[in-house]
Amino acid sequence: xxxxxxxxxxxxxxxxxxxxxxxxxxxxxxxxxxxxxxxxxxxxxxxxxxxxxxxxxxxxxxxxxxxxxxxxxx
Length: 74
Hints:
This protein is mainly α. Helix content is about 75%, strand content about 0%. The protein has four helices and no strands. Helix 1 packs antiparallel against helix 2 and helix 2 (about 20-30) runs antiparallel to helix 3 (about 35-50).
């Protein structure tokens, strides 16, 4: 069961679902012991060090222009 959770975590991470992967890794780490637990925790830490990627669509214009437009909408 623990190895199945690790595989689900790896699949989720590869698909960009980092939150889901984190949960699977945490569940696996809670069940594991010894060297396997150490390996799972290391993978989880590596996952947490990855930069987050925004899923928002890119917006044209500078940040200042976007703030001005957003402020005008309020």
